[in-house]
Amino acid sequence: MKDFKGRTAFVTGGASGLGLSMARAFGRAGMNVVLADIDMSAAKAAAEQLASEQIKAVPVHCDVSERGALREAALEAIAAFGKVHVVCNNAGVAVGGPIGTVRERDWDRIIDVNLKSVVYGTEVFVPLIKSHGEGGHFVNTASMAGMISPPGLEPYCATKYAVVAMSEGWHGQLAPINIGVSVLCPGFVRTRIHESGRARQDKYGGIGDVDPGVAATREQAAQSVLSGIDPDIVGNRVLEAVKNGELYIFTHPAMKAFAEMRFQAILAAFDTAAASPALASVKDHAPVTLLTPKP
Ligand SMILES: NC(=O)c1ccc[n+]([C@@H]2O[C@H](COP(=O)([O-])OP(=O)(O)OC[C@H]3O[C@@H](n4cnc5c(N)ncnc54)[C@H](O)[C@@H]3O)[C@@H](O)[C@H]2O)c1
Fold this sequence. Notes:
By secondary structure, the chain is an alpha/beta fold.
């Protein structure tokens, strides 16, 4: 996407952190922005902050774990600005902990908020973007935790790997109709993700319900997040990447070594398979109908 002026970006989790930074970057490029967030008072404050920077911003209440709420928020965005061109499926929460300690409701919450929300946001907006015919772009927020899975972060990583997977597939599906897809994979960024219990919905126990995994690692998580990079750097990087139509958006180049370690282990495992006597009869077997991966 090259043309940003007068167009509209819809950002979930737009009241804080990465969402607000992307809204600011798109706003500075001349876009109207919709800040869709479960925390309406924070979204209003963020919209006022953007307005003071001459950015047209509208706050909209939305719990991304509900498909219907995303549909309603999309209609509000269209009522405000006519069309939506960029969608940042960004809202997310953090859940982790040793095996057996992550409660069912915490699994449900992270899958709904981090993973299914991206499905809802995409399915709601694809027809709307298609209908105006001006093209568009999705930015799905994953994480470096969508590339590597450190012990103790499995619920978070499972959702972020899924966001990477969906983005890779949709990138191929949507390119022919002039809709780009990027997947944002940052390392630590200075936001409030370590306090994501503040947005816990009643259906998962409410804000007073403390997730034991988060409680046990609170201090360490806070330290890591607060030593992260400035969110506005990420917003600017995202704008740059959307202009260039990049699929993968990394913000911490020094973390390449972690990805390399994982991919080398995977490639080595293929070599082990190729040398395996148990696989001697199937060595050359590859499904001919496999879709060509599109990097
Ligand atoms: N901060 C980091 O180090 C980091 C690194 C990689 C990826 N991320 C990802 O960035 C995204 C944004 O997080 P952040 O770091 O800016 O955290 P943040 O807590 O500062 O912002 C998250 C925003 O999402 C909103 N939100 C939470 N649940 C919601 C829901 N159900 N519906 C709508 N809005 C909801 C919150 O109210 C908040 O405004 C998340 O997907 C997170 O996983 C963060």
